[in-house]
Amino acid sequence: MLEVSEIFVSLQGEGPLAGRPAVFVRLAGCVPPFCEWCDTPQALGGGRRMSVEAIEDEIARHPRALVVITGGEPFLQWDTGLERLARALGASSRQVQYETSGKAGIPANSGGFVVCSPKPLHAPVLDPDSLSRADAFKFVVEEDISPVLDFVAAHGIDARKVWLMPLGATRQDQMRRMAPVWELCVRHGFNFSARLHVLTFNDKRGV
Ligand SMILES: C[S@@+](CC[C@H](N)C(=O)[O-])C[C@H]1O[C@@H](n2cnc3c(N)ncnc32)[C@H](O)[C@@H]1O
Ligand SMILES: Nc1nc2[nH]cc(C(=O)O)c2c(=O)[nH]1
Ligand code: SF4
Ligand SMILES: [Mg+2]
């Protein structure tokens, strides 16, 4: 069984696969300390208990090539159902992409494209083996980029795997921070990620 916050169909709004049609499975529960600016506080506690088969059935109703598994912290539920769901999706023609902070670890055989969004306050609990399994890193930037540069240097991360994304759960905050974050990407040779769903729908949920 898995604790689910929501399942919805949309477009991937951020990161390396932005723009792609996708089914989103948002698993419930995260590891404290929570990010003070988390834009999905409804997913930090418990969710609706669903069997892996029921989630597969729900996903099957939406013929999208990409399944984004997010949260909360999805890998918290690896041993209690997510591994089984990942295997079932792997056996289908779907591509899986994970959104993770990395603080619950990243399994060796996730079978998907892992986008890790490390937070400075979690850095002490992130294990190097897990981080080596991330396919891309998406850092949320408010203003000061030095924690990102320190993290990238400490873990020897290739700039081509790094995306900077402006902090902000509203259109107004995104608009305000896009230019400075864009400039930081230009200066340091990082990729830029907008938050397309926020720019398009502001702080609406389930998009
Ligand atoms: C809600 S989190 C769920 C996945 C995982 N817990 C994580 O943090 O990566 C999904 C993505 O939204 C980002 N995010 C959350 N709140 C945000 C905010 N206020 N502004 C910008 N990005 C935010 C996270 O960094 C992460 O990349
Ligand atoms: N459209 C859309 N794209 C997203 N990419 C990652 C999301 C997430 O909350 O993990 C997200 C989300 O909530 N909506
Ligand atoms: S790790 Fe992700 S889900 Fe958890 S509090 Fe931070 S942004 Fe929210
Ligand atoms: Mg989101």
From TrEMBL:
[4Fe-4S] cluster binds at residues 30, 35, 38. It catalyses: 6-carboxy-5,6,7,8-tetrahydropterin + H(+) = 7-carboxy-7-carbaguanine + NH4(+). GO terms for molecular function: 4 iron, 4 sulfur cluster binding; carbon-nitrogen lyase activity; magnesium ion binding; S-adenosyl-L-methionine binding. Binds 1 [4Fe-4S] cluster. The cluster is coordinated with 3 cysteines and an exchangeable S-adenosyl-L-methionine. Pathway: Purine metabolism; 7-cyano-7-deazaguanine biosynthesis. Keywords: 4Fe-4S, Iron, Iron-sulfur, Lyase, Magnesium, Metal-binding, Queuosine biosynthesis, S-adenosyl-L-methionine. Mg(2+) binds at residue 40. Its cofactor is [4Fe-4S] cluster; S-adenosyl-L-methionine; Mg(2+). S-adenosyl-L-methionine binds at residues 37-39, 72, 117-119. Substrate binds at residues 11-13, 26, 70. It comes from the Bacteria. The keyword S-adenosyl-L-methionine applies. The keyword Iron applies. Its EC number is 4.3.99.3. GO terms for biological process: tRNA queuosine(34) biosynthetic process. Homodimer. Belongs to the radical SAM superfamily. 7-carboxy-7-deazaguanine synthase family. Catalyzes the complex heterocyclic radical-mediated conversion of 6-carboxy-5,6,7,8-tetrahydropterin (CPH4) to 7-carboxy-7-deazaguanine (CDG), a step common to the biosynthetic pathways of all 7-deazapurine-containing compounds. This is 7-carboxy-7-deazaguanine synthase. It comes from Desulfomicrobium apsheronum.
